[in-house]
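We were asked to recover a plausible sequence for a given structure. The inputs and outputs are reproduced exactly as logged, with field labels preserved.

PROBLEM: sequence recovery
POSITIONS: 480
GIVEN STRUCTURE:
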């Protein structure tokens, strides 16, 4: 870990020391070094005031900026140095330096109150978990671990450096971070912290939707989102973040006439993650849209569940209801419009494939499937495949084979027709010229009619499309 610190970082420590200030590398970079994980962040804490830090960073770096002076944080960049003689070239070094501080929330405010502290140990005590409360003093490279973070790191435990109730009261978002680190690191939340989060889940309501969303995104993009989601649900935090998720834990009737929708959804998420691709693939992972859609695709089931007279259970139109619920929840969390629309659309379409294996789809039906999915087609492929969680291996193989067949048909049609860019055989300008009309509603109606013919029959060619257009136009002119 120590050997990996760039010379520029050690020089920064010397500059702070020469100015009479303490500087320490803290948090994630120290933790990740012990875990053998690469860390892109270089976070430091210091006894210097923000103004003093800015002066030192301005002299050390090639650029510096005010990240949040009110919170004590100044950033800087030191450009890479070229190789000379026996010295190899270096990489850019970007740092964030924050004055020792203590954060606390006013009970009626969504914003933390910031009070600058006067010691490294005090600063470490206000951090979220002991595994993030370790530091390396610079330039002397002294390891500081006042709360036994290294022991907890080895045990894989998330424990707060102070009483968890005090910690979560100071910053309720730390309860969500517990779930996030459970997902990212595979660690267990210790019993005291878990109990405090369960009792204090309502406190999360004072945190802004944006901060909650950002923690949820980090959790979902982690390697083990299932573990973190379980923490959210089991502590009751999910009721304030994604209440639709715990609502999926429908009671299982004694005859087991339907599967556990909550467990099913977590399994679909796991399987969707397994189907993500590398950077050059169709759906490079981690893919937030696919993961959100996998998690939320069945949230319409609780509202649509009906017990049928014959003993079965139905969820008619749960995909439509679920799409609306997903959009509403994601908007409440202030997700961007593109993400909201994509997740809602995938939720709406996730059942479209069912029935394909029961009877042959026409080419027209395949074209509509592709056209309706649009740019989400590759994600829809993965969501649909992931939605098969049956333990009946024969049924699973049959569904997989049916979807293989559908993808092969799509590929053939795309090759033949460039299906992903379907257009009528005549464009708007040609329609107006043939019919002798000007821009207006009738042009759109004619265009839509030709598009329907294109979807139903494939390419017609301009001559046949012209005849079909004129026949349609003649029908429109007849008195109703």
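RECOVERED SEQUENCE:
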């Amino acid at each position: 870990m120590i050997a990996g610190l760039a010379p520029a970082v050690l020089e920064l420590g010397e500059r702070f020391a020469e100015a009479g200030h303490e500087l320490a590398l803290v948090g994630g970079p120290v933790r990740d070094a012990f875990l053998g994980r690469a860390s892109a962040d270089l976070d430091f804490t210091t006894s210097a005031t923000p103004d003093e830090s800015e002066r030192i960073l301005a002299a050390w770096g090639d650029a510096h900026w005010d990240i949040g002076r009110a919170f004590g944080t100044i950033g800087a960049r030191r450009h890479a140095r070229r190789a000379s003689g026996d010295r190899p070239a270096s990489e850019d070094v970007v740092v964030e330096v924050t004055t020792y501080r203590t954060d606390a929330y006013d009970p009626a405010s969504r914003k933390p109150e910031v009070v600058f502290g006067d010691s490294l140990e005090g600063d470490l005590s206000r951090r979220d978990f002991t595994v993030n409360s370790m530091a390396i003093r610079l330039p002397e490279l002294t390891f500081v671990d006042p709360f036994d973070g290294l022991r907890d790191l080895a045990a894989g435990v998330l424990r707060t450096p102070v009483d968890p109730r005090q910690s979560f009261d100071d910053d309720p978002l730390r309860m969500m971070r517990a779930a996030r680190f459970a997902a990212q690191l595979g660690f267990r939340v210790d019993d005291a912290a878990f109990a405090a989060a369960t009792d204090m889940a309502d406190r999360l309501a004072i945190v802004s939707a944006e901060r909650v969303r950002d923690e949820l995104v980090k959790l979902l993009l982690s390697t083990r989102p299932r573990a973190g989601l379980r923490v959210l649900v089991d502590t009751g935090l999910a009721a304030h973040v994604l209440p639709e998720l715990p609502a999926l834990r429908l009671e299982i009737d004694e005859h087991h006439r339907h599967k556990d929708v909550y467990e099913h959804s977590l399994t679909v998420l796991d399987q969707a993650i397994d189907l993500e691709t590398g950077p050059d693939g169709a759906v490079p992972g981690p893919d937030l849209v696919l993961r959100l859609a996998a998690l939320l695709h069945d949230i319409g089931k609780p509202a649509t569940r009906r017990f049928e007279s014959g003993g079965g259970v139905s969820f008619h139109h749960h995909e439509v209801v679920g799409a609306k619920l997903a959009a509403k929840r994601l908007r409440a969390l202030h997700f961007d419009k593109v993400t909201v629309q994509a997740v809602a659309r995938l939720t709406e379409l996730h059942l479209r494939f069912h029935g394909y294996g029961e009877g042959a789809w026409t080419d027209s039906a395949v074209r509509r499937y592709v056209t309706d999915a649009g740019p989400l087609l590759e994600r829809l492929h993965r969501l649909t495949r992931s939605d098969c969680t049956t333990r009946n291996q024969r049924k699973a193989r049959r569904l997989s084979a049916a979807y293989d067949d559908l993808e092969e048909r799509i590929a053939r049609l795309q090759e033949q027709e460039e299906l992903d860019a379907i257009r009528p055989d005549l464009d708007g300008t040609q329609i107006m010229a043939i019919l002798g009309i000007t821009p207006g509603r009738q042009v759109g109606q004619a265009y839509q009619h030709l598009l329907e013919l294109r979807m139903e029959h494939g390419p017609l060619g301009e001559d046949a499309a012209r005849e079909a257009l004129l026949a349609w136009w003649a029908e429109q002119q007849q008195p109703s």
